[in-house]
Every structure is written in structure tokens, then in C-alpha cells.
Design goal:
The complex is a heterodimer.
Chain A lengths: L2 E4 L23 E6 L5 H15 L4 E6 L9 H8 L3 E5 L3
Parallel strand pairs in A: 2-3, 2-4
Chain B lengths: L23 E6 L4 H6 L4 H4 L4 E6 L3 H11 L5 E3 L4 H6 L3 E2 L1 E5 L5 E6 L1 E2 H10 L15 E2 L2 E2 L28 E4 L5 H8 L11 H8 L9 E5 L4 E4 H11 L6 H11 L6 H6 L5 E7 L2 H5 L13 H16 L22 E3 L10 H4 L7 E8 L3 E4 L6 H12 L13 E5 L1 H9 L4 H11 L1 E3 L20 E4 L2 E5 L7 E5 L7 E6 L11 E5 L1
Parallel strand pairs in B: 1-2, 2-3, 13-14, 17-21
Antiparallel strand pairs in B: 1-5, 4-9, 5-6, 7-8, 11-12, 13-15, 15-23, 16-22, 17-22, 18-20, 19-20
Helix pairs in contact in B: 7-8, 8-9, 8-12, 9-12, 14-16
The chains are: A alpha/beta, B alpha+beta.
Amino acid sequence: MPITLVHPGNETKPEAAPPPRRLDTLQGKRIGLLDISKPGGSFFLDRLEQLLRTQYGVADVVRAKKPTYTKNAPAEVIEQLRSLDAVIEGLAD
Amino acid sequence: MTQTQTPARHDLQSLATYRPGSKALLVFFETDCPTCQLALPYLNALANGQVQVIGISQDDEAATDTFIRQMGIHYPVELDRGLKLSRAFDPQSVPTFYLLDESGRIAQTLVGFDKAALNEIAQALGHTPIAPASDGAPAWKPGCGSRHLEPAANGHSADLSAPLLRRLGDRASRITFSDLEDVVEQCFRLFGDALPVVPPNEERVSAMLKGTDLAPQTVIARVPPVYGEATVEKIAANAVMAGCRPEMMRVLIPLVRAVCDEKFNAHGVQATTHFAAPLVLINGPVRNELGFWSKQNLFSNVVRANSSVGRALQLILLNIGGARPDGIDMSAQGNAGKFSQCIAENEEENPWEPFHVDRGFQRDESAVTLFAAEPPRGVSEHKAQRGDVLLRAVCSALATVWSYRVCMNNEAMVLLCPEHARTLHRDGFGKNDVRRFLFENTGIPLRYYSEPDGGEGTQFTAHYREITILGEPCYQKFRSPESIFIAVAGGTAGKFSSVLGSWAVGPAGSQLVTYPIP
């Protein structure tokens, strides 16, 4: 006899968003650097900012920081980054 | 909450359902604002009485109808066409609540979601409190900008493509297997952990649902990190899989609320690279009523109540919350507690007040506590004749919480075995004395920091506090005595206690939560 189970998992369908088009060049672009607040993240991002500015000719680098790495970025941090051409998120220590 | 007295507003005439001459509570909201979605259903309780409650939607009819249906709003809701009322009242954010007196003047204004303030308003209206402290929702949550203040705001409406924080979810779907398939094997493949589960067939889930009065579609919480809806039915299905008896729904419902409490921060606990796993601690009469075990082997596979409730929580976190140990859960080495980690306090052998009494409950109430814990460190002390000597053994374990040179950053749960608790009590230690002793005598010798080796914890010493322990200069391990939680647990033979370190703590980490069990 067939057996019917009650689905025990999450059935919420996430909204699929298409990935944004990749940038052809960094020249003249506005790039965000998101620091998630892990110790040491700034060393990496400082160097990245320097490289972006001196070697890739970006128009601007916007630095944003999550208040804590343990939680989602709050809306105001996302807002800071929304209008930029691309964002690089620095993960882990 | 602000108290203002403003003139009656003729704008109220545009509200078809407003009746002058009696108090009224108006709430401005947006359908896609998570705080509005959280707050508005609380007012149903008020609207059932004599108070007029009117919701004022800043969105269009279609979005508002969806909101009313999915949030289960029972009171009148009117559309603020052209945002005229919003411009007149000028709330800066939503939800904003206006309590009007009999003459239509604003007597009180409440901005955002605030349980205590909502209960004050209910009281001002002669009503009992409407926002319980332990329903899983935060005590306070700020709202979103009011629609009339948005650029180009002229009736712009919500985009409801984002899912509502609805109170009633969908029924779980059904999965049918032919009798040629091995259902236990299919469960291995589709859901659960790496151990066999009891297949959650309709008969078993239906029996489990008899353990609660709540409707199967009731959404108890959204389980991080993917925020799947934990409906009563899905909790029941996972409870079946874990081997729970139906009466355990009494514990599982508040447990799911507690684990999804923003203070506990399951989002971080479930995704961290650290060892942390939820430790479930049961207190009060429910221990004996449902057979929870607090004596020897309490961390082991000793009774069905502990093992099945701990496992049900983990299955809920896996299946509904989505933190799979081969995916989003990135713990470097994991934790055996992720199979099941539910213990009860041995209140009978506790010479002091039980743990939940420390947390503000009555001794005859039952409660469940969650602590994001490292694996237990054992503390053996069989030789000490005095309480202070045995506590120094506990201090040495406490000093290694998280990492030996990291101070001021963590908490710990100390589980004293009955023999140790008895020695301490005999020597005149109250529980607060124990806490204070551990606080004052747990430190890391300064000589461990003398080499500038750049190891973990050495970079924060500017924030550390210097103390002297037995003549040795040390940095104090903990921020305050309240960083140390104490419970009595385990069997009456064997002088073995344990210390469980925390994950990141405080508002930027995980906070210990205690919820009542009805």
C-alpha cells in the first residue's frame, strides 16, 4: 500500500533574482567594499581599496561595515551600497 | 511613546468606520513593512472588546486585501487614498499608533513596535495586556519610513513580491511513495540528519497534532538562516521523525519560539564556523510530568524525553531552517550536541533556587532555556575538602572558554554536579557567592601575554581588567558575575562538574533566552 508522508521541510519558494551583468571594466566604476566586522577584515580591504584606486582606475570606492558579523546587514548598510556598480564583501578573519 | 494633546482633526471624517464619541486606536501601516506585519495582528485582541481599532493602509486595495487575509486582521481597515490622512497626521514611520480620546484628540502616539507600550495602551483602554513577553517576537522593533515621505509619494503602493510575515501558513505538501520503496531510505535521502528517522506519515503527524490546540497552519516562527515557516504541522512532522510523543508539543512550541527569538540569534549560531550548538535546559514541574532526565548521564542517550526533544529541535533547524551541516552550517569541527542536546536541571539535588527562578519564573512554573554552547569541558575534583578549593578547579576550566587569552568577550554555563553543590552549600556558599567567587578568581596570568606573539586575545588587552589571583597579576576572564550561569545537573555519585563556554555574546552575538512552558 502506498505511504504518504507530511513534508517536514521548508517549502517557501525563494524569489529567484537573475545575477547582475558582469562588469566589462573597473575603469570609472563605483565599487563598494563591505567589511563584515571580523577582526582583520580591514587589512585585506584597505589593500584592495589601494589596488582599485591605483591600478584599476575606479571612479570611487565606498567603504561600508556591518555592525556585527553574526547577523544580516541592516537595511541602512545595504542602502549605502545599492547604487554602486559592484560590491566586494570581505568575509572571515 | 510620546504624549501629546492636539485638536480634533476634521480629517477623521474621511474614515467611514470611525465613530466619534468613544476612544479609538488608529494605526497607519504599509503592507510590505515587516514591523507592520509583526504589529498589526496584536490589535485583534483589542478589537474583540469595546475599543474601536482602525487600520489605515498606505497601500492599494489589492495589497491591503492580501495583507488583511494573510495576517488574519479582524478589525476595520481603510485605504488612505492619495495618502491624505498620512499627510494630515504626518507619521514619520510606520507603524504609528494614535490613541484618540472621546473627542478625537490624540491622547498618545506610539511609533514602531513596542510590546510594553502596546500593553500600556491596552491598559489605558481598560484591557488586559495584548503582547506577551515570550511569544518569540522581539520586545521592540523599529518600523519603516512612512509612504507619504517617500520621493514621488502619491499613492505609490507596496510591491508584495516579498513574502508576508503571515500568521497562517500553507498546509505541508504530501509526498507519496509506492510500497516498492523503502520509506526509511527515502527519508535519509530527502530530509533529516544522518540517522534513521520515524517516517512522518499522515497518521503519526495527525496523532502528534493532538498534542496541541493550535491549528496546523499556525506559523510559530520563521527559522533562520533561510527563515522557513515553522507551522505547527511541520513542527509535528519533525517531532514524529525525532521520536517524540504527542505531549512533547507542549515543549516544542515554546522551544521553537525561543530558538527563533532575535536575541538568541539562530541566524549566527547555525551558520558560524565556531562549535556552538543550542543547549536546551528544562526546568520546573514539566520535568517530572513528561519524564525529562536530570540525573546521571544527562548528556547521554538515557531517556526518550531528552533525546527526542533535543533531536526534534535539531531536525527543525535542519529541515525548516536550512542550516545543513554540509552546507550553510560552516562549523569547522561541529558539535556532538547537534544530534541532540537537551538536559534538565536536577532541582531535587539543587540546594539553591532552580535556574528558571534566577530567570524570573516561579518555582512551580516550567521553562525552557537556550544557550549557544561550546562542547562541555569536564571538571574533576574529588579531593577538595572545601568549597573554595573545588571552585578553583572550575575556574581553571572557565579560563579556557573560547580561547585562553580571550577575556571580557564570553559567557559560560557551569553545571555543578550534586556532590559539588552539596559541598559548596555546606560551606555556606549561596549561588551568588559561587558566581562571585568564579568571577573574581578566573583570570589569565599576565605572563601569558608577555611575548608579543600576536596570538588570539593579545590584541584586545587595552579592554581587559587587571586583577590579582593568589598573588599573581591576571587579566579578569569575564566581564561581570552575570556572565556566568549556574545550574545543578547530573547524578549523585561522582564529583564531576562541567563548564560550557559560549559563542559570541550580547546584542552582537547570542543571548541566553528562557521561555515559559505552559
